[in-house]
Amino acid sequence: MNYYEILGVSKTASYEEIKSNYKTLVKKYHPDLYQGDKTFAEKKTQEINVAYDILSDSNKRAKYDLELNPPDDINTYNYTPPKYTTSNYNYDDNSYSNNYTSKTSSHYTSRNIQNNYTNSYNNNSQYTNDIFVNKLKVSIVTVFIVLLAYLAIFLVTIFQYNSYKKHNTINRINENLTEINTHIDSNNTSSSNEEFNINDYISDSDLRQIYYEYYTNTFDNFSEFKKALSEYIKTYTYYE
């Protein structure tokens, strides 16, 4: 397996592609994060670092490409992958940490992963809470609008009922007054000295209803209203 295959890139890959794949692989096989055999992870990490060290340097890469594809007049070069021995490549926590820090923008540690998970969970919770609050606001506004509509309908109904009641009362008064006039006209032979009694035409209960509905602010009491109405009818109807 050559260095291109180790990093999973083509032989024509750009530096950005090589660097991107290197970061992905070194995170994947980091001994602190790898879930499998730690020894395998350490060896794999060493292999990835060696490949990146060659391919990330333009001079080393050019020389390596010549080794992979020598000219026709030169004997074919057989590549033997390096053996992972302590003498060839020393791996310890400090050296790997320094090398990894210089080639990556940040460390991926267990604490970073935990913090990222916590932040993601908090963001999701905040998003859920915002959705709930928005739905609650819409529900409250909807209920408020419905209540206003019902209140408007109720007020219109009350107004129409009062208008209808007032209209019927006025019609009934006019009918009673018409009946009085008709009765008086049919009895023109009555003596002018005959005492007029409004109760012969309208009962006290009807007069009281008229008084309390329309004339309480005009007359001090019912008797004054009854007397004034009687005088009105006598003056403008009976004695014509």
Write a structural description:
- The protein folds into two domains: 106 residues, Helix Hairpins (Orthogonal Bundle); 121 residues, no CATH class.
- The protein has eight helices and no strands.
- α2 runs antiparallel to α3.
- About 8% of the residues have low confidence.
The biggest sheet amounts to: none
Runs in which pLDDT lies below 50 for 5 or more consecutive residues are: 85-91, 104-108, 187-193
Beta-strand content estimate:
under 5%
Whole-angstrom Rg: 54 Å
Helix and strand succession? HHHHHHHH
Mean pLDDT: 77
The number of distinct helices, counting runs of at least 4 residues, comes to 8
Shape: rod-shaped
Helices, strands, pairings?
Blueprint: H1 3-7, H2 15-28, H3 38-55, H4 58-68, H5 93-103, H6 110-185, H7 204-215, H8 222-238
Helix pairs in contact: 2-3
List keywords for this structure.
mainly alpha; Helix Hairpins
Describe this structure in a few short sentences.
With 240 residues, the chain is mainly alpha-helical.
